[in-house]
Amino acid sequence: MWDGAGAFQLPEWMIQFADQKQEFNKRPSKIGRRSLSRSISQSSTDSYSSAASYTDSSDDETSPRDKQQKNSKGSSDFCVKNIKQAEFGRREIEIAEQEMPALMALRKRAQGEKPLAGAKIVGCTHITAQTAVLMETLGALGAQCRWAACNIYSTLNEVAAALAESGFPVFAWKGESEDDFWWCIDRCVNVEGWQPNMILDDGGDLTHWIYKKYPNMFKKIKGIVEESVTGVHRLYQLSKAGKLCVPAMNVNDSVTKQKFDNLYCCRESILDGLKRTTDMMFGGKQVVVCGYGEVGKGCCAALKAMGSIVYVTEIDPICALQACMDGFRLVKLNEVIRQVDIVITCTGNKNVVTREHLDRMKNSCIVCNMGHSNTEIDVASLRTPELTWERVRSQVDHVIWPDGKRIVLLAEGRLLNLSCSTVPTFVLSITATTQALALIELYNAPEGRYKQDVYLLPKKMDEYVASLHLPTFDAHLTELTDEQAKYLGLNKNGPFKPNYYRY
Amino acid sequence: MWDGAGAFQLPEWMIQFADQKQEFNKRPSKIGRRSLSRSISQSSTDSYSSAASYTDSSDDETSPRDKQQKNSKGSSDFCVKNIKQAEFGRREIEIAEQEMPALMALRKRAQGEKPLAGAKIVGCTHITAQTAVLMETLGALGAQCRWAACNIYSTLNEVAAALAESGFPVFAWKGESEDDFWWCIDRCVNVEGWQPNMILDDGGDLTHWIYKKYPNMFKKIKGIVEESVTGVHRLYQLSKAGKLCVPAMNVNDSVTKQKFDNLYCCRESILDGLKRTTDMMFGGKQVVVCGYGEVGKGCCAALKAMGSIVYVTEIDPICALQACMDGFRLVKLNEVIRQVDIVITCTGNKNVVTREHLDRMKNSCIVCNMGHSNTEIDVASLRTPELTWERVRSQVDHVIWPDGKRIVLLAEGRLLNLSCSTVPTFVLSITATTQALALIELYNAPEGRYKQDVYLLPKKMDEYVASLHLPTFDAHLTELTDEQAKYLGLNKNGPFKPNYYRY
Amino acid sequence: MWDGAGAFQLPEWMIQFADQKQEFNKRPSKIGRRSLSRSISQSSTDSYSSAASYTDSSDDETSPRDKQQKNSKGSSDFCVKNIKQAEFGRREIEIAEQEMPALMALRKRAQGEKPLAGAKIVGCTHITAQTAVLMETLGALGAQCRWAACNIYSTLNEVAAALAESGFPVFAWKGESEDDFWWCIDRCVNVEGWQPNMILDDGGDLTHWIYKKYPNMFKKIKGIVEESVTGVHRLYQLSKAGKLCVPAMNVNDSVTKQKFDNLYCCRESILDGLKRTTDMMFGGKQVVVCGYGEVGKGCCAALKAMGSIVYVTEIDPICALQACMDGFRLVKLNEVIRQVDIVITCTGNKNVVTREHLDRMKNSCIVCNMGHSNTEIDVASLRTPELTWERVRSQVDHVIWPDGKRIVLLAEGRLLNLSCSTVPTFVLSITATTQALALIELYNAPEGRYKQDVYLLPKKMDEYVASLHLPTFDAHLTELTDEQAKYLGLNKNGPFKPNYYRY
Amino acid sequence: MWDGAGAFQLPEWMIQFADQKQEFNKRPSKIGRRSLSRSISQSSTDSYSSAASYTDSSDDETSPRDKQQKNSKGSSDFCVKNIKQAEFGRREIEIAEQEMPALMALRKRAQGEKPLAGAKIVGCTHITAQTAVLMETLGALGAQCRWAACNIYSTLNEVAAALAESGFPVFAWKGESEDDFWWCIDRCVNVEGWQPNMILDDGGDLTHWIYKKYPNMFKKIKGIVEESVTGVHRLYQLSKAGKLCVPAMNVNDSVTKQKFDNLYCCRESILDGLKRTTDMMFGGKQVVVCGYGEVGKGCCAALKAMGSIVYVTEIDPICALQACMDGFRLVKLNEVIRQVDIVITCTGNKNVVTREHLDRMKNSCIVCNMGHSNTEIDVASLRTPELTWERVRSQVDHVIWPDGKRIVLLAEGRLLNLSCSTVPTFVLSITATTQALALIELYNAPEGRYKQDVYLLPKKMDEYVASLHLPTFDAHLTELTDEQAKYLGLNKNGPFKPNYYRY
To answer: Reaction catalysed by this chain (chains A, B, C, D) (predicted)?
Structure first.
């Protein structure tokens, strides 16, 4: 043990992932497809998001691919559910604009400069009102864009229509088939007389498609911006394998995004997700939270504040000590499993809650997952004949033991925050702004600044994203005096911290 | 602004420091001397620490250097105030042992192994009961030690006596002169028939002395372990200048130490320091905290919890956004200076509170500093003829304006937490354990693991320090199963996080 | 001002209420009717409560009054929507039983005793699964019950069917007309060969009906138990006017009910109501809460914990001082109205938020009411031609000013907690248990204990309700030793506090 | 149990008290005397209050009774330690004035009115700078005052000197004997040509003395204002016994005083008391708090906020349920006694912590009392031969078991908040203002408003005290409009709540 060394090996789930990808390349089944995308795809169909059903268009069964549609300017370079829904979508975009002041500020600043003049961006993300604000911002900064959906369920048809109406070549609708999915991506990329020079990806499917089908395109591509955990891992794999042929920017691990997507967002969504599904009262409830990373910290803080008694499990002694200092008893799951009212997983690990744990839980215990993947609770172990499943609400199952004991399982063990609550626009604004800045940085970087590797967003950009969001809170930043900057050895405009700073 | 690059320049205070060192090398004045040591030295004389005055030995005016003392085994290889105080000091050490279970656990584990067998450690630190537990642990692990004080005021004479009595060559007493200070260090290093092979330093004075006087000693020295901000900077300077001739371990920046010394410790000491000095009530008070790093976060959380209304100032937009999300209004100091009841600085910067701010504060406003150095409040600007200073208690001055307005200045702008509250043994235990592990690592590292450079404690060690402190809280860590470890790509014994993880 | 005296005058809204009652007696319009019932009635139609639409029976347009239905035992002494829905309703009741352990405990304790043997209770409350558990508990304690709904919208048809199936004469369905409403009440009261001797009322309509139509019945009635604010005020009016001819128990003001309905429940429902309607993020938001009573205290605590910056307005200097000590800036609404993101009223007062305030709010400001009535926000003032109303979701209106500014008005100013979140079963359990104990107390009280007046629940009963709910939390109460009870001058079984104790 | 009735019997400790008083009347020993006064008297000698030793006058051994002193105006109608210390005392009074704005505001308002013109007040309280501000306020309102100390240790000699110098007949010094104590009181009361018409008492000794020695004086006395728990009980006993011959005002139970003395003050003083005595770290510590009244609520909230894990014991199921909802596990002491790091009593009960509990505590467990009396911990049971007591600091004893286990007992089981922390001036300001208003009310009340009984402060006065303290927090109260006042049935100036309101 006196040997302090320790290297990160390639984790199994990344290896599995590589295997899946192999599989996927042959001919993805619908299931296979979804397991490659972000877990949001699995849950977006039955999410509470009111936005998901703006208008009723379910009666129209014709595939968009078979429709002939033109926008009011006569263009038909798009494929959406129904171009006539554009007006409704436009209103949604306008409302989103009001909540995304950072992108609007970027538009203003760029009025003269056009830092993306000449950029030809192909994008593959969820298509929502917030994405639309991003796309129209990229347009205002000078870029041309073509766009597909990164998930077969998450497209808001009205928003896609509004984008198409205002001239964006968008290829996406809610309820695409697997075949549609790739067809849409291909329509974005494979265009007569237009070649992308930037990629904005969420999950890596677009990047993967170009690698497979149009590898030569990379000659003109200046960089890839990738947002998702999965996509980032794919990029690191490519890089390790020496196959990454353009610079890529990992915007998933920027400070601002991490803190908002995890700590601050989960602090609120754990309460929201539990309330919407179970109407439970938090006060006095005993809760065990598995994992005390950013997500676990957020969950614990919120529940403690609402009067719950919270226990924590951890494998990492440093996080464990933090849990202690923050006032949570650190236990093994077995020690408290019989007494708790709620079990929440936030580990990124697998089989943290096993069938054995589930067998020992008390009646009415609520079990849910806030972590990275749907592996944390061994849900498969509950699909056995002696147990009865009863769907009591959307996203809520009672699993009933022979003796009548009921476990309340939320979202079938998938992410509670994505399935049963909504992501605030403010968080999406931070992500979108980060993406925009990363595109600008890669597109404008002088020759040689970035090699064929995966980069984190420069800290200065990270700080800039934060600064663009401060006006939302009427927050006033202090500026260093010259004397102070000199004293600290800092540039007055930042970056203000060394890279290893922990915030 | 599209240029994301930004390098850390050499900060002014490090340049100043280098200048001071020059000065210092010539012939340090008493003032010069203190400005080189940690700020604790400036305040320890009048601190509240009850330990500082165990027994009354102030009547004995003979210099220890002029005394002939022997311990009960006949040795006189030490120099302390009064060897007869050993018994009292021993009891203090025994009490401290009860609160430092991690070091006691190390002793037990090492009973067979003796990982420091053959080590000859020369140390220069504060000499307190906690240090004594560290020294005796190093002894139990097989090391020989010689020790001096890193501060002319902070030695507990009784503890020094107890160490001398049990055979440790200790050269230290409370109230050394500058000359005494260096004489003590020299007596540790310059010994017939004994050459150190490890250095444990706190502030860099010991290291500096050996560099100047006995550079050849470094041939046998396997490494330096340095704890203080100041000492670490000296080492990085040496390294940059290519003059560092042995590996050095920076234990100041380990996760555990940082979180405990800053966030968790300050969360408590801000309340303690304010209460002991002013007996004020926190409820309803308006407070502005300058700086939202770990120290600021701790101060803000504590005061908010006690019912204060807290404003924050920041220069870094990321920390600023964190303050917003944590529920604090982000302001410029000028906006609130007229209305606040308390001003607390935690920036590490200089002149954060200027005379102009002080002029505008309301009557009875309390001003104090929790940051890195005593430069944050421009105290010098208050030493002008039109203002009257009135010492109302130890560490508390009223500065009175001509119109009768009083400002309550604590610890003359030096660190409130060190001057007016005490550091809990638990925090000292973490530091001491980190030091012990760093010594073990450097002493046992295979050839080539460490070069002539400054290293952070390996994460695995950091985690090990944390794990040794969990039993204090009866905290039970979960172990990964083989399957889980494989899934995550982790070794079951850690390290559990990548180096960039932010905790 | 040296005169400390001050008497409570009859408040205007009670006088108004008396006027309305006059009106109401003539021939209530549908609107008039609803304004007399608890505000839940106004909002229950479009509430989020999933329970409100268990099964789809909306296609059956025949009035229940025109149907011929029999339960499986051949009885037709009931009138519900559809007796065939009984099975579904029974499952809901069984689930509710699991969350109402106090009533289940009462059933067990009463197995031998039957404290309600001989009681003939006529009830008029919301008819939900929780009410069903109460009714079946009263039955188990020996009582005969007949039941109508206190609200024309809130009946769960399936639950009513289940009660009818198991033999309870229930007269209620969702969507009654005004005429139906009184017909149902009359069918409960006016029965051949059965006369009620106890009344359980919620809102006072049942009591009122008997006063008007069957005043002679009061000769046999031992008491009235009333739960609502409105009904309690009606009783105090009757009492003042010397017209109350039986004892009445005000269970609305018991400690347990007050704390749970207000402080603890609102602490959670403010977050829930805001999230479900707006998906907003709380962190960093500026909020003003008008009123710092129990409801305001709950709202403030929750929002502060979620990272909002909270301001408070108050008229009562004692509550104001509490707000200060709890860390909230006490302001006048005008001082912050331009800067806040959310305005929440919890005053019980009228026109706390005026049109002038609304005109000055910033774009996207959210306005909602958590207080007693829907008078707190002057919503009427917004129904002017120059403002556009846009319904963006159920319970969410955008009110749009000519310059494009939008105010987000929730639940049209009605109670957010009742309209946009659900009341936890645990809170309903406390109320139901209190009602059961009040019935038992009044029914069993020796002659002369209660006169023709309105009483609070005896403290010992209040304590008993609390004690029945402790097992939910696995909470273990300490018992006084004989010696301790004597020392304190207390009975070991309580009551433990003087009546003026403030908790 | 269906019988809801329950009357408060006379508690044993009041009976004991009555016995003690008997004892006391014969000829109180020094111990007996102290056990009758407020517990502050027991601890004030070794308190941390820096104010207790402003100047060194300990060398002067002459009894003040034997000295001939005159103030600068030639008066010798006083008896203090040393009239020459007046200047120092005056400065302390001036500083206190700045922190007691409510009394200063009263002075201003009364400039014309003099509501105490003609009042002759005899007072017996702690003599501190804050009391001096009260006395000089009473003077400014028109009263004549004569004053003695209610505690033989708590007088600040410098303040007494300053009062004497400015013309107040003060009879008090630090370190009075029992005989001195009564002599001083007698000198206040028994004066040629001056008869008191108001009594301000703290503990009841002054009232008692007049009852015994000068019962005829009550003919001219308009009322008694009593502040302490003990004194209030004495008054209720007199009232019960029909021997109270003037109206008395119980200012101890006013809302403002209760919340500040208990909830808000203890929230801070528990942390302060523990830190000053033990320098412990709160984070991660397991604590059991016995009793969840106002004091327990304050302790629990503070420790939870500092990261401790807190358990609660309770006998009252309502308070127990509150503890649950606030997030604390409710346990019996036995369940957690082996595992906790700190035991805090706040019950007002006796033998809550028994020798058996103490035997089972773990090593280094800290035991302290925040409750009403020093009976809560059975300290007497620790004074047995097998246990060793070691005084390690002022107010800190280690009690050592034969096996080496140490318990850390604070303040020998007396009140931690009074012994080891200080009461903030703000709290004293609330008390003093309440006393002043009560004197004004009783003195000005029209004939017949108050009978020979004990009264609570009228709510309007309570609200007025609160309102006078709002400016300290720059808090802005909202005023009711006429329309709103009418709607609520309230007078615009209050009182705003019914008497049973719980705050």
So the answer is: S-adenosyl-L-homocysteine + H2O = L-homocysteine + adenosine
Summarised one tens digit per residue, pLDDT across range D494-503 is 999 988 888 9
Given CB atoms, is C471 within the 8 Å cutoff of chain B? no
Chain C neighbors of A424, CB-CB under 8 A: 279-281
D378 contacts D351 by C-beta, under 8 angstroms: yes
Q: Average pLDDT, whole number, for chain B?
A: 88
Taking only the tens place, the pLDDT of each residue in A426-435 is 899 999 999 9
How far is B327 from C282, CA to CA, in rounded Å? 9
pLDDT value for A12: 61
Please, is A343 exposed, middle or buried when counting C-beta atoms within 10 Å of its C-beta (0-12, 13-18, 19+)?
buried
Among candidate residues A227, A255, A257, the one with its CA nearest the CA of residue A454: A227
- For residues A203 and A37, the answer to whether their CB atoms sit within 8 Å is yes
Structure tokens, C331: 């302001």
Put simply, whether B99 touches D (Cβ < 8 Å) is: yes
Bond into A402 cis (ω within 30): no
Question: Would an 8 Å CB–CB cutoff place B276 in contact with chain D?
Answer: yes
In whole angstroms, what is the distance from residue B417 CA to residue B268 CA? 9
Q: Which amino acid is at D239?
A: S
In this model, does residue B42 exceed pLDDT 70? no
| Burial of C374 from C-beta contacts in 10 A (0-12 / 13-18 / 19+) | buried
Buried b (16+ CB within 10 A) or exposed e, B348-363: bbbbbbebebbeebee
> Does residue C278 belong to the interface with chain A, where contact is any CB pair within 8 Å?
no
Indicate the pLDDT class of residue D374, thresholds 50, 70 and 90. Answer: confident
Query: Of D141, D51, D143, D131, nearest to D97 (Cα)?
Result: D131
Query: What's the pLDDT tens digit per position in B421-479?
Result: 888 888 999 999 999 999 999 999 999 999 999 999 999 999 999 999 999 999 999 99
DSSP character for A497?
S
Structure tokens at D220: 């001219």
Condensed to tens digits (0 to 9), the pLDDT of residues B245-271 reads 999 999 998 999 888 889 999 999 999
Q: How are beta strands C388-393 and C396-400 bridged, if at all?
A: antiparallel
Hey, which chains touch D, using 3+ CB pairs under 8 Å?
A: A, B, C
| CA C369 to chain CA mean position, Å | 16
Return the number of other C-beta atoms located less than 10 Å from residue D417's C-beta.
Answer: 29
**Cβ-count burial C251-279 (b if 16+ within 10 Å, e if not):** bbbbbbbebbbbbbbbbbbbbbbbbbbbb
Q: Which residue of B has its CA nearest to D267?
A: B306
**A317 with B477: Cβ contact below 8 A:** yes
Chain A residues within 8 A of B349 when measuring between CB atoms: 480, 484, 487-488
Task: Please give the full DSSP string across A138-152, using - where no structure is assigned.
Answer: HHHTT-EEEEEESSS
Per-residue pLDDT of A199-233, as tens digits, reads: 999 999 999 999 999 999 999 999 999 999 889 98
Between B157 and A419, residue with greater pLDDT: B157
Cα→Cα distances C19→B76, C24, C25, C348, C490, Å: 101, 8, 10, 19, 47
Copy the structure tokens of residue B431: 């530091």
> What residues contact residue A109 under an 8 Å CB cut-off, 6+ apart?
none
Of chain A, the percentage scoring pLDDT greater than 70 comes to 88
Cβ neighbours of residue B235 closer than 8 Å, sequence gap 6 or more = B204, B207, B224, B226, B244, B248, B250, B454
- For chain D, the distance separating the N- and C-terminal CA atoms, rounded to the nearest angstrom, is 30
Residue D261: band (very low, low, confident or very high) from pLDDT cuts 50, 70, 90: confident
Best C312, C477, C499 residue to mutate vs chain D (most D CBs within 10 Å): C477
Q: What percent of chain C has pLDDT over 90?
A: 77
The alpha-carbon gap from B454 to the nearest alpha carbon of chain C, in Å, equals 40
